[in-house]
Fold:
Amino acid sequence: MITIVKADGQAERQQIAAMKARAAETNAGIAKSAAEIMEAVRVRGYEAVREYSLKFDKAEPREIPPEELEAAAKRIDPKLLAALEQSAENIRAYQQELLTKSREWESPMKGGMVGQVVRGLSRVGVYVPGGKAAYPSSVLMNVMPAKVAGCGEIIMVTPPTENLNDAVLAAAWVARVDRVIAVGGVQAVAALTYGADWIPQVDKLVGPGNAFVAAAKRMAYGTLDIDMVAGPSEVLVIADETANPVYTAADLLSQAEHDVMASAVLLTTSEALAEQVKAEIVRQTGYLSRKEVMVQSLRDYGAIIVCEDLDRCCELANEIAPEHLEIMTKEPRALLPKILNAGAVFLGENTPEPLGDYMAGPCHVLPTSGTARFFSPLSVESFLKKMSVIDFNRDALAQVSDGIVDMAESEHLTAHANSIKVRFSK
Structure:
């Protein structure tokens, strides 16, 4: 089911290569289909959106009124509603701490002020999958940071399935989404990219989707901003001989159950733990509901790699740059300074990855497929735009006027230089 590999400089690299290969470029057929739909909506607007919605989802797009969201919130289990409300509050509190504020300060030139104005984006779109892949937690994780940023309007789109998921609608009600529109697929991405009659254009589009939606988001980028194009989910666990094999196996399985492309890898210094975790995986999959998915995921993209020491574990972790990184060692915080690349880090045996998925507060929209080397988690900062502010009086300008003229003339931009000269010519 899952392979144990002894790190020798070669075997572990084969495992890493397999992980990276699973996030290969978009299938050409998918990209072609997405491009056709995007162009049709750009040219024909809502007519094309309606046409593709009827073709693929067998339903016309429609706006879901607030009272329908509230009714869904009343229909779900009260305990689930309470959990959604607590999660939303934890996300809000965390994002509030990250919020950048507008500010100004004195320039090194006396009489000059510089600064930055920070504002939320005017309109944001949030894509929420429908059908079996309905995740109310993703509604909260995408919407709450935008709310804290002070975005003008948040529009959620979700496929117009026959029976819309009550938990998803309830999450939209808890997060106070401004508008919810039942439209999905590439046509939803296109409508939010270009605007289509009563479906407005947005400034940024976030949220997960299938391969067609991911391809469409790539094409939309530049006309609007996107969060990231997420690849298959992944978890990497660093553990020593003190780790609990039951917990370790459970955490690996919690990612493996996402889909057959998910990756769950354990890096450990203990051969005994490696064998215990492998046995635990077999035992626990015996009573879990998504056994077939987990077995295939672990067989194809899972591994237990035994390393010579924790430093080597950290080196491999930085090379993999995982979406989720758990550290289950005797002193987990001691390894944190050595971790350079990860979407989210979970320290200690009582900080499992699902805590981050649902309740801790940090956003679970994280970079995947090694992109944690240069991408960050979705946050309130993702929904802000910033403008520089400069305010100089004449004395402050005089202090730098000669330097500006010299630099402008060195670039042969005489009009730039003249803009300064005219202010000081007699």
